[in-house]
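hiii so um. not sure if this is the right channel but i have a protein structure encoded as tokens and i wanna go backwards to a sequence. like what aa goes where. can anyone help
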């Protein structure tokens, strides 16, 4: 039975060597040279090339020239088949950081971090950098000291962190009713909104961010505080949210980085950005 942890299994090798598939990839083989032979050889070539680049980044940027001991090497072996598939330069930097986290067993490293990183695009990884900066930057003395990085964010804030140019003040009904008369700018904005929603859902699926929902009256006014026996606006009891009328509860969503997400981001962040 083929080992699912190997980059190329025996069954896949046989499939890749069939004539239809060889013809499918013939432009690639010609580009690289006939000496590389079958598609499986090309995959091996790129896998080794990817790992070589990651190892260079790991050795130079993360370990500072220090050698691995046997136990450290054993801890990184399960990550190598996944790392071998990554050709993006930015993601290779993150794999180098993750290999170092695995070798040292720090930054709350978990073996599942490899699977999680393998499912992220470079764009998503960069977005997580920005989210991490937002939730770990102190804004006032009320920031919680016992749960750093768990600051809740509104959906619109998530969207603005992703792309400040997106207009979040749009009515979803507008798209359905006026879809044939929307301007190109409005269409482009909706396309951006659709994409960031996919990204948010993907990060939620991976357990990196979590959504919490709460309900509150749809219409109310709030009296903030009292001066002596009087509220500042002269009405009611201070600090109370008073419904203007009976109305349906409004569901409010907030998002925060999960404990898993925080540890994951720290484990895959290149050393030069966290020193």
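sure thing!! here u go:
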């Amino acid at each position: 039975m083929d080992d699912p942890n190997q980059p190329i299994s025996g069954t896949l090798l046989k499939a890749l060597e069939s004539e239809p598939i060889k013809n499918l990839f013939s432009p690639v083989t010609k580009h690289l040279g006939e000496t590389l032979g079958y598609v499986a050889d090309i995959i091996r070539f790129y896998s080794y090339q990817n790992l070589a680049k990651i190892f260079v980044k790991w050795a130079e940027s993360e370990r500072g020239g220090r050698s691995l001991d046997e136990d450290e090497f054993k801890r990184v072996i399960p990550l190598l088949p996944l790392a071998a598939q990554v050709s993006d330069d930015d993601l290779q930097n993150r794999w180098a950081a993750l290999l170092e986290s695995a070798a040292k067993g720090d930054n709350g490293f978990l073996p599942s971090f490899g699977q999680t990183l393998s499912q992220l695009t470079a764009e998503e990884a960069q977005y997580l950098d920005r989210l991490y900066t937002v939730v770990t930057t102190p804004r006032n003395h009320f920031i919680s000291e016992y749960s750093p990085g768990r600051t809740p964010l509104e959906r619109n804030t998530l969207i603005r962190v992703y792309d400040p140019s997106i207009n979040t003040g749009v009515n979803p009904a507008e798209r359905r009713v006026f879809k044939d008369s929307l301007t190109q700018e409005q269409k482009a904005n909706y396309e951006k909104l659709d994409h960031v929603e996919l990204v948010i859902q993907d990060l939620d699926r991976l357990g990196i961010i979590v959504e919490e929902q709460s309900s509150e009256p749809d219409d109310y006014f709030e009296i903030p505080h009292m001066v002596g026996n009087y509220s500042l606006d002269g009405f009611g009891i201070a600090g109370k949210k008073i419904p203007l009328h009976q109305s349906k509860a409004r569901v409010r969503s907030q998002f925060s980085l999960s404990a898993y997400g925080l540890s994951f981001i720290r484990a895959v962040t290149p050393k030069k950005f966290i020193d």
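oh and Residues 212-255 form one domain.
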